[in-house]
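call fold(seq) -> tokens
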Amino acid sequence: MQSIWNGAISFGLVSIPVKLANATVNHAVSFRQIHTEDGGRIRYRKVCELEEKEVPSSEIGKGFEDADGTIVPITEEDLASLPLPTTRTIDIVAFVEADRIDPLQMGNAYYLMVNGAPAAKPYALLREALRRSERVAVAKFALRGRERLGMLRVVDEVIAMHTLHWPDEIRSPQEAAPETDVTVRDAELDLADALMDTLGDVDLDSLHDDYREAVEEMVTAKVEGREPEPEKESAKGEGTVIDLMSALESSVREARRSRGEGEDEDGEEGEAGESGDKAEKDAEVTSLSSRRKTDGRARTGSGSEAKKKSAPAKKTASGRSGSAKSGKSGSSSSSSSSSSRAKSGSSRSTAKKAASSGTKKAASSSGAKKKTASSRKRSA
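ret:
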């Protein structure tokens, strides 16, 4: 592993010679700028404004631009003469709990490697002390021409160092907060919790850069002279949330489907779906008309009793007489209906008897006619 800095860790009176190496690798695909008409390469050339000619790197130095535009030359000797004790030293200033470090402060990550066999013992001592105390070390060091703040922590058997932004370099989060007050309901939180539970945990080692792979595949296809395969259309929406509740419910169902968790026998989803349904019920507003319909009978009875109690005595007496009349009319109507049913039954039996007697008469008349005709034939 190639080192980019050599120095020592200052741990009280203990000095640990170390080398600094990058802990991360950038795998992003880089592009070159070209002239679209002929494909020629576009290059940036370092040109002196006074002489209007390109200047090699060996003749390029540093300078500080003053407020009036004047350039003050700064040499490497000037920087080296500064009273900066952290030029070649990672000076540990404190040991703090890990949660004291805001992730917003964390920057690049480096590995601290032992520089020589004699450094192995103090290196292991500092590593095990950090591991047992479950704390991290805050240190100052100088890198690439400026003093920086760092955090040392244990990663497996190695001490890693993260650069930290100075506290005054962190912007206030109030500048990015929503300008309007938003109220989040418990039902929405329940669905959000259900979605989080459904998505579950993930193996971070399984995550990879899909965009980089797609770019590499496209470049390979162009080099081989073939058309790249079209990408599959994403089933996700355009990012516009119209109904937050329905979006959360759909997200829960999609997450369950992607994880292969189907519905049970009753067509109901699992715990996440049940909590989502419960949240949905809590979020629904029951209309007053439906409540009035369901409670109408009970309220009607109680309301009529209240009206009777509050009504005058005369109206109560008239109401009773009216109810008695209605009872009599009801009984008379029932008796009339029963008599009408009896009359209709008797009329039906009379009609049947008349029809049967008519049939017998017709049969006897037809028999008399036959006998008369036969007697006429005999006399003749």
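The two ends are 149 Å apart (CA to CA).
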